Amino acid sequence: MRRLDALDALRPDYDLVVVGAGPAGLSAASEAARHRLSVLLVDEAPSPGGQIYRAVTETPLQNRAVLGPDYWRGEAIAASFAASGADYLPQATVWHLDAERCIGLSLNGHAATVTAGRVVLATGALERPFPVPGWTLPGVMSVGAAQTLLKSSGIVAQGRVVLAGCGPLLWLLASQYLAAGHPPTAILDTTPAGNWRAALGAAGGFLRSPYLRKGLGLMLRVRRTVKVIGGVTGLSIEGTEAHATSVTYRRSGQDARIAVDHVLLHQGVTPNVNLANAAGCAFVWDEEQACFRPTVDDWGNSSLDGIAIAGDGAGIGGAEIAACAGQLAGLEAARVLGRIDEAERDRLAAPSRERMRLYGRGRAFLDRLYRPAPHFRQAHDDAVACRCEEVTGRQIREAVTMGVPGPNQLKAMYRCGMGPCQGRLCGLTVVETIAAARGVSPAEVGYYRLRTPVKPLTLAELASMPASEADRKAVVRI
Amino acid sequence: MYRRLPERTGMAARGEVPFVLNGQTVSGAEGDTVAAALLALGHDACRGTAVSGVPRGPYCMMGVCFDCLVTVDGVGNRQGCLVRLRPGMRIETQDGRREVGR
To answer: Which single residue of A196, A331, A416, A450 has CA 20 to 30 Å from A239?
Structure first.
């Protein structure tokens, strides 16, 4: 791997550009480079790993028992990428992708474009928003954010730390905090009671899943030490303007309050879709996972020619499946660009296909068990839905009564989704809140129409781009 | 408040990284992002929002929420969770919306 520190070290074009250095992106890049494609892997983070293997090559937490064996599996994936012939551009932003596979990049105040024969988007997942009153207060962050602090800096929240929500990551962080000697004060479990019934229908697959034993062991360890309050149906966080001080939760129709120094929220993860959406890839509403995901075929190919999507960005499957899907996308790139034939691609893909079946077994069970309650997915009247423009659930419902049919029309009223995060954090909340208010499916409401630049770009960065004579003539009066 | 785990939990020693926060010289640790260093120093909030001015701090730590925006070496609205701390960096917390040129 050749690590690049500046945009002028880039080639003007590559056989394959991969966006994202998590398990899917690293595997796609390694596989494609193995078949002698010229490969560029672009990533926002300073070191490879994505979110799940964040900082795996440089974490200060060298006691492996704290982050656990699943985290350290990322070491081999990162090592195989490091040994590959790919170019690696860390700490860079991808702000543009189009159907011609032109990619806009920025780094250190400069911008440039490269073109690619093929593109693999491995943009991964992000945490589902949790729009309860007070979730914007300092002292409140997501469980994933706390885990990032732990992995990359060995930093923990201290004092009275309450975890609230549902999903595997919540239990994983609790066990990691426990192993680090900082057990959380309490877990407020919002898993809806009725979910067990729905999940039992898919229990057969989960019983044969590698995640079963791991998951049960982890939950038992946490339950032995940490107070777990189940059946939570309502949540709000109170405090001064400067900091959260308590959480009020509803259980069996009764409200109770606990004093806190930190609240860590989590209710599952959803595909990170902004770049694929802006490029024009086709999307569908996935009712089982309650999110929008791009349509892809068995090799990750999206609706746009030459653009594939691998890993959680194409639908949540977890790290093991993501690594396999990345390898498949790398093989497909090698086939399309003539390095291997179809038979060779299929032969090399077989072990990963088998592994995807194995790790896919428990997915339906987990999706159903940890599906967050609708009232936690829609914005509470008094909660901020769009954190950038500070638009509340009540304002969205009022807009619907005035005839606003979807998120793109809402922009004109409240700038909802038009702040710096460009709808990343509010997208699903806004869609589900509108859909419920209209009494229709989110599929009918649709998602934000996103556009270039997909991440903020300064005018100075734009002006720094190499300009041709034709570019100059287009704007300069002669 | 946040704290760094002590070495007995298996933490490798990391060098100090001195930087300037709102005119005061402070320090973070090698490998920190700007947002992590600010949290470790006790700044749970790093900005006042552009709309109502209320205090906010990092929510996602992975480049999604834009709640960790700070001014880095004179450039406003940088995502603190994506910028690695460097010795001598000048960081300013942001109060309200940015003005042209900042």
So the answer is: A416
How many angstroms away from the CA of B75 is the closest CA of chain A?
9
Tell me, yes or no, if B100 comes closer than 8 A to chain A by beta carbon: no
Among B34, B47, B51, B83, the residue to mutate for chain A (most A Cβ within 10 A)? B51
Q: State how far the Cα of A237 lies from the Cα of A140, in Å rounded to an integer.
A: 9
pLDDT tens digit at each of 478 positions of chain A: 999 999 999 999 999 999 999 999 999 999 999 999 999 999 999 999 999 999 999 999 999 999 999 999 999 999 999 999 999 999 999 999 999 999 999 999 999 999 999 999 999 999 999 999 999 999 999 999 999 999 999 999 999 999 999 999 999 999 999 999 999 999 999 999 999 999 998 888 888 888 888 889 999 999 999 999 999 999 999 999 999 999 999 999 999 999 999 999 999 999 999 999 999 999 999 999 999 999 999 999 999 999 999 999 999 999 999 999 999 999 999 999 999 999 999 999 999 999 999 999 989 999 999 999 999 999 999 999 999 999 999 999 999 999 999 999 999 999 999 999 999 999 999 999 999 999 999 999 999 999 999 999 999 999 989 888 888 888 877 6
Say if B60 is an interface residue toward chain A (CB within 8 Å).
yes
Instruction: Indicate yes or no: pTM above 0.95.
Output: yes
Q: Say yes or no for a CB contact (<8 Å) between B44 and A138.
A: yes
Interface contact B44-A243, CB threshold 8 A: yes
Give per-residue burial for A428-447: e unless 16+ CB within 10 Å, then b.
bbbbbbbbbbbeeebeebbb
As beta bridge partners, residue A416 has none
DSSP class of residue B85 equals P
Tell me the C-alpha distance between A186 and B77, whole Å: 35
CA distances from A177 to A171, A295, B61, B81 (A): 10, 37, 17, 21
